[in-house]
């Protein structure tokens, strides 16, 4: 209802592309397949549960591939992978092939090279979820929907989202880290966006790519 109401306001204001990425005007209890990017996870809540949500505009869901890799597989970003007993086993990455509708899981650090082969092609292969190898607990989830594949035609650009759990057996939140002149409270998670520049798909007028930080 919120999306539909906002669409009506946007139309009255004469805004470009109002509601073009809404594939349904009736809510049936599940937002999947309706257009908006959807990421979800189910877990038993801890005494202190820290969750960080990322949202992107007009890009492929594969834009989360490198940040998730840096958070959960790169010891130069997340030192806990080396020194923390509850993280040393590493994490497993579930990668989805959105064209063939197939999934494959890679264990880090054992299969990092194989993982990179796939997530290095973010327009097709996308990290769907990340799991702690020791406990099996879900650590992160991202949306992998493609509007064009759902609708069968171009109906707008994708706006992917990502959910990341923090603290304990996951990358820490309260370890402050100086990055240039920035001091980031959620260092091991948010540091990725400040320090590492990557090229991601951004279909400006449907044909261009842009530099994204």
From TrEMBL:
Keywords: Carbohydrate metabolism, Gluconeogenesis, Hydrolase, Lyase, Magnesium, Metal-binding, Schiff base. Belongs to the FBP aldolase/phosphatase family. Homooctamer; dimer of tetramers. Its EC number is 3.1.3.11. GO terms for biological process: gluconeogenesis. Pathway: Carbohydrate biosynthesis; gluconeogenesis. It is an enzyme of class 3 (hydrolase). This is Fructose-1,6-bisphosphate aldolase/phosphatase. It catalyses: beta-D-fructose 1,6-bisphosphate + H2O = beta-D-fructose 6-phosphate + phosphate. GO terms for molecular function: fructose 1,6-bisphosphate 1-phosphatase activity; lyase activity; metal ion binding. Its cofactor is Mg(2+).
